[in-house]
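WARN no homologs supplied; continuing
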Amino acid sequence: MRWENLSPGSEHSRADTALFGAEAVTTRTFDTPEFAGITFHEIRARSIVNRVPGASRMPFEWTVNPYRGCTHACVYCFARKTHSYLDLDTGLGFDSQIVVKMNAPELLRHRLASPGWQGEHIAMGTNVDCYQRAEGRYRLMPGILAALRDHANPFSILTKGTLILRDLPLLKQAAEVTDVGVSVSVGFTDEGLWRTVEPGTPAPERRLDVVRTFTEHGIGCGVLMAPVIPFLSDRPDQLRAAVRAVAASGATSVTPLVLHLRPGAREWFMSWLGRHHPYLVARYQRLYADGAYAPKWYQRRITRQVHELAQEYGIGPTRAEMPRRIRAAEPAEPAEPAEPAECPAAEPTQLTLL
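OK structure emitted
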């Protein structure tokens, strides 16, 4: 693995070649059913606040990712490629070899307190899910949220995990002093498709229960309808069922995102497609012949259909950044945090959130 050259005395153990500190890389397995077959690599990261590359389509500039790899095991996950940076497998290895940044909360608190930090918006859950099953054991998010709250730093979370409900009190406290955004990812409500394409995630209905709970506690929660999977979850009746369920959950908005297939994810997804839906392989090769993204005409068609359904069910289309923003009605100390980058609303675009 990438950190194996960091052992004490190694000629390659210079800081500028290391992603992690050599003094603390511990590999563990746990003899419990929920972690069967999963290996955890506990490391001490050198940094935790990451700048989004300028060429990215993300509507924000900074991210925090306390984990690498994800037990959600979504066959389409674009973050699979990142495992190759550590010489880890991007298929089963991505699902079962989880890197845990044990010092994430303290690193974040230190960065937020540094003179050079200007209080910019921080997005979480945009690479791998910070509320995957590993979080139930390692509990990194409470420390991360407490640091953001204590520094009144605006942030957003995107998740498929119901574990976020554990931290509802912290999120409510943070929303009293800064802008907080919560979005839940639910691309479809087809249970059969969910079991094969997102085998490690909570069921779509359980995720929508998260939206209901946040709504009941006065925290608006948007839904990213992501991904819409061509030929598998894009029929009009499937889109209607998904939007109807989203509306019933009390979501503040719904934003559709069509599946995109980056290198690393593309190979794994196409392998899965060949096993489960071989008749679709040729159609996918044609649809994604020009790269990672579906054609613009297809993206626009899905966006239009979902927005029309959203209006019908009373939630209506909104700008892409709105699900992330929650402003407390009467904050104790009004703050003026930096605004997250704007995402144009005039014409729907494909965001690389999942």
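The chain is about 30% helix and 15% strand.
OK
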